[in-house]
Amino acid sequence: MAEHRPCTARNETPLQRADRNFVELLQELRVTQTGVQILFAFLLSLAFTSRFEDLDTVQRVTYVITLLLAVLAAALFTAPAALHRSLFQQGAKPRIVQVSSRLATIGLSVLVFAFSGSVLLVVDVTTGRAGGIAAGAGTFLACVGLWGLLPRLVRRTGLREEADGTGETADAESDQDDVRSPAPLRRTVRQPSGLRGAAANREASARHR
Predict the structure, then answer these.
(1) Can you give the residue ranges of every domain in the chain?
(2) Helix H or strand E encompassing 106
(3) C-alpha angle 45/51/55, rounded to 5°?
(4) Burial of 118 by CB count in 10 Å (0-12 exposed, 13-18 middle, 19+ buried)?
(5) Per-residue pLDDT of the chain (209 residues; tens, 9 = 90+)
(6) By its UniProt entry, which InterPro entries does this protein fall under (predicted)?
(7) What is the dihedral of CA 25, 30, 34, 40, to 10 degrees?
């Protein structure tokens, strides 16, 4: 019974949250799989071109490693679908989401090296070894910056804004308390004892009259 109680800000049960997270994960995998498929198709077709025979040893090693990395990335990105199919209707959706998220993260890491290797190979063949190394390093840094550093910066900015919002809320509440504080002070202000005695004497004399 506890698994069906709402537990999130969206008033979701754990199973509903797992379903939503898995759908979002599949949307992410569709985007990344498109890039992997294009890269994999390019690398496969490259081996059957006439210029492939002119590649030196370094270029051939780069090609083989890049091709294997692309295959590994494709396998990692398709693993969540196979995992879901194998554990379908077995009550393991939260665990499937957790494992699939880790597979996708590893797949992105592998894809960074696959992209860098493919750019290194193409630029090396067209312009030279130095240009290929520079282009591959630039691709690697761009992917790491966009896929690794940018999410951390966004998360840190969000945490900072939440902290600032909490601080502003606390300041606003303290200001409201300061504004409301004179009211009880006014209630506590009383006339001096001498004035109260004189008023009582006047009331008593008026009664005797």
Answers:
(1) 2-138
(2) helix 93-126
(3) 100
(4) buried
(5) 344 555 556 777 888 888 888 889 989 898 888 889 999 999 999 888 888 888 999 999 999 999 999 999 999 999 999 998 888 888 888 898 999 999 999 999 999 999 999 999 999 999 999 999 999 999 999 999 999 999 999 999 888 888 877 655 555 555 555 545 454 444 444 555 554 555 555 655 555 54
(6) DUF6328 (IPR046291)
(7) 60
